[in-house]
Amino acid sequence: MEIGWRVPSYARKWTKSAESRELVKYFTSVEEHDFKSLWVIDHLLVAPNVYSVAWQDPLITL
Predict the structure, then answer these.
(1) Minimal CA–CA distance to 53: which of 38, 41, 36, 35?
(2) Which among 24, 23, 12, 1 has a CA at the least distance from the CA of 51?
(3) Calculated CA dihedral for residues 38, 43, 47, 49, nearest 10 degrees
(4) Phi, psi angle pair for 22, to nearest 5°
(5) Angstrom distances, CA of residue 12 to CA of 6, 23, 25, 35, 55
(6) Domain boundaries in the chain?
(7) 46-59: pLDDT as tens digits
(8) Is pLDDT larger for residue 28 or for residue 47?
(9) First vs last Cα of the chain: how many Å apart?
(10) What is the pTM of this model?
(11) Where are the beta strands (DSSP E) in the chain?
């Protein structure tokens, strides 16, 4: 069985957003544990007043 991992794609207002170096640590950890794929979530339509988060661009994140 091959297992993938979802990449964090948002930052809540009350938490620190994922910086580049934090994402590199995250990706390195995923690779060290031999996961076979990474997944990102894309939100084409975002309701800013419903979700109080900042969405990261999935292509730039990859």
Answers:
(1) 41
(2) 12
(3) 30
(4) -70, -40
(5) 17, 16, 20, 26, 9
(6) 4-61
(7) 666 666 666 777 78
(8) 28
(9) 24
(10) 0.54
(11) 4-6, 10-12, 37-39, 53-55
